Amino acid sequence: MHDMKRKVQVSVPFSMLHDTYLERFLAEQLNPEISIGAEDLGRFERVDFVRIVDELRRQSLRITLHGPFMDLAPGSADNDVRAITRRRLEQLLDLVPIFEPHSVVCHAGYDWRRYSYSPQAWYRRSLELWSWLARRLTAAGTCLMLENVYETDPQEMLPLFEPLGTLGVRFCLDAGHQAAFSRAPVERWCRVLAPYIGQLHLHDNLGSKDDHLGLGKGSIDFKGLLATVKSVCPRQPVVTLEVHHEQDLMPSLAYLENIWPW
Questions:
Q1: pLDDT tens-digit map of 110-155
Q2: Among 15, 32, 19, which Cα is nearest to 249's?
């Protein structure tokens, strides 16, 4: 189990790490994927972030970040909405030198129910924002991972990765989101976006909503997923557990240890 802990990231909001879970992460030697939301950016000062990072570094724990996403829209037709989105990402960039993350995950944000009437305009606006962020993150020594949420097919994301791939942007395949919201099988996601896969988010559900259950508590075939990813990816991706209930963490690590293909 100790080896498994060192191989993966464990998702945790910064506020929960600060208020409750720091000692648990240190004691269990868990590598955190720290979610930074708008509430964190408003509540905490730079000194708060520095203190947490110093504690994590003393244990030589690897850090990844998840950027703000709630109510943000990188491809919005509204200039003010895009300006707010960029402002939040600029605030995230200010923290990158503190955290020195291995990767930074953001939601790509395509939703056919809102944008399918004019997809090319959405892609153009999104590419402008993500290109800017990717260059800034590359200069800071890390890379941008764009994650699927409501996208129903990998072809909805491919127009982002074809130009952004040259900037080092990679795909974070969220298995729970794919199972709950996609119309395409996970094998198609892996095949179409194989050159860009850089990270996995693992959590389970029953295929109808985004439950963030422990691995093995839903209907996702994680063994098959990991085998498929291994077969199409030249390098092992970063793997993050995104289970939302504390009691599911250790059983999920044990489950993952039994099916780990790398």
A1: 999 999 999 999 999 999 999 999 999 999 999 999 999 999 999 9
A2: 32
Phi and psi of 221, rounded to 5°?
-90, 85
Q: What is the pLDDT of residues 160-199, one digit of tens each?
A: 999 999 999 999 999 999 999 999 999 999 999 999 999 9
Nearest of 137, 72, 58, 80 to residue 109 by alpha carbon: 72
pTM for this entry: 0.97
- Which among 249, 246, 245, 237 is positioned nearest to 196, based on CA atoms? 237
**Cα 95 from Cα 92, distance rounded (Å):** 5
Q: What are the two backbone dihedrals, phi and then psi, of residue 214, each rounded to the nearest 5 degrees? A: -65, 155
Domain ranges in the chain?
2-259
* 67-102: b (≥16 Cβ within 10 Å) or e: bbbeebbbbbeeeeebebbbebbebbbebbeebebb
DSSP letters for 74-88:
TT-S-HHHHHHHHHH
Residue type, 168: G
Residues 6+ apart with CB under 8 A from 242: 11, 33, 174, 176, 201, 202, 203, 212
Pair 69, 40: CB distance under 8 Å: no
Gap between the Cα atoms of 159 and 54, Å rounded: 39
Indicate the DSSP class of residue 231: H
SS3 assignment, position 211: coil
Q: How far apart are CA 14 and CA 28, in angstroms?
A: 17
Residue 2, pLDDT > 70, answer: no
Q: What is the CATH number of domain 2-259?
A: 3.20.20.150
